[in-house]
Here is the input.
Amino acid sequence: MNRVSIITPNAAFEEHAYSAAPELMSPGLRRWKEEYDRIDPAKVVADTAGEGVDVVCIGPDLADELMLELASAFDRDRPEVGVILAAEPTAQLWRSAAQVGVRDIVSADADPDVLRRALERALETVDRRRANLIADATPDTPRSRVITVLSPKGGSGKTTVATNLAVGLARTMGGKVALVDLDVQFGDVAAALQLSPTHTMAQVASAGTIEVTLLKVLLTPHASGLYALCGAESPAEGDDVTHGHASETLGLLAQEFAVVVVDTAAGLDERTLAAIEVSTDLLLVCTSDVASVRSLRKELDALDQLGMTGPRRHFVLNRADARVGLEPADVESAVGMQAALSLPSSRSVPLSMNLGSPVVESEPRSPVARQLQRLVEQFIDPEVPSRAGQNPVAGPPRRWWKADR
Ligand SMILES: Nc1ncnc2c1ncn2[C@@H]1O[C@H](COP(=O)(O)OP(=O)(O)O)[C@@H](O)[C@H]1O
Ligand SMILES: [Mg+2]
Here is the structure.
């Protein structure tokens, strides 16, 4: 970790700093070059920052104006580098220094541990600022769409929707589509697409560091052109996949693929929450029975309470024609959202799943496949929504007389 560089003509101070915090120092004593007090500060900055240092300590034995000029050049050209001064910390110097982004001024004859603490504090500030920059950048990171399919209940049609959507998209967009099975314990994406994966999400958990090259190895290609990252072989293995694994994996895939479709387990587990955090779109799937509708409404409320309002929400009503179910209008009213899509019940769906070939592929003319194809077309639109403020206002649930009776 060569993270600190000292810029001073004073060799004794340089040595003092090296012995105060040897492991933090950039290697090579005598950073100072004679010409430094004559040349353009921008060149000194380029020289120093080019070595990848995080913090510079400027002084002592430099004129205040020169120290401030150097600090100002870092502030302008390398704002990510933290600057502290080794000088007499007068009020006047503090005033001017603060204006050019100096973090701290430490006396040139400070005790080693005082100097060391000042350097550590500056490094901590740099690290924090960098973490904030990364967090701020995250919402814009997916230039691609990340579409997470979720539902509070099992059996509502998440895997059906996710696999048909991904295969439908891949048939148009080819290898630019990835499908991730985050139902890591009981996921059936592999079965639904008749894939025999050599690798699964479990390897992501055991890999330690996750990199694009590793992820590419873990993907299983499907005949449609899509790449699938399948769920774990066993529930125990799947349990090792954490929020962090899911979030890093999806972040990396979003950099590599134009569309990432994510299938999830029922409810809001840590992996699903990670997926929602990086999603541009949520596909909320629900069947038309009272329990499903109630649970979906609760899930929407939970997302609102968690502040997860960024991704655009789409509501998919599955088995909309179920004889025992509620009327679609009542479902929409109770959920507080209009259905973007209604899927009829069809024997073709379980049959196609058993065959490992989604209906958009195996029975493209069936009514259910036509509806799913409409969904696919909505997402072929090249314009990727921003992650903020896109949702139709899902007003409060209206009175739901049929269910409350
Ligand atoms: N529209 C539909 N018509 C008939 N069967 C369906 C329909 N949607 C889903 N199914 C069947 O219901 C079961 C559960 O669907 P699935 O997509 O696996 O749900 P989930 O992933 O939410 O648990 C599967 O057997 C599937 O074939
Ligand atoms: Mg499923």
Notes: Residues 158-159, 183, 188, 263 surround magnesium ion (ligand 2) (CB under 6 Å).
